[in-house]
Amino acid sequence: xxxxxxxxxxxxxxxxxxxxxxxxxxxxxxxxxxxxxxxxxxxxxxxxxxxxxxxxxxxxxxxxxxxxxxxxxxxxxxxxxxxxxxxxxxxxxxxxxxx
Length: 99
Known about the structure:
It is found in: Mitochondrion membrane. The chain crosses the membrane at residues 29-47, 67-85. This protein is an all-alpha fold. It has one domain (13-96). Helices cover 72% and strands 0% of the residues. It has helices at residues 17-27, 30-47, 57-98. The longest helix is centred in the last third of the chain and has 42 residues, at 57-98. The N and C termini lie far apart (57 Å).
């Protein structure tokens, strides 16, 4: 009976967090855009926490979460539309080349 040793990765072969982030950025460039948008919105809303007026803390935090999630969903939608359009253009170019 042979043991499957593929599940264990030695520390020398393991990617660092920076390498993983750079690889993900090359694979899908809108991931850092969504992450950055989320962080910017969250930082801005936390900065505005002092001047929230009579708004309850829970309502302010819910609005912060919704705005940050909207940035991430927007980046996902942009990536989807970009992928669909690029695939459509490639398919049209292939169809035109076959004729």
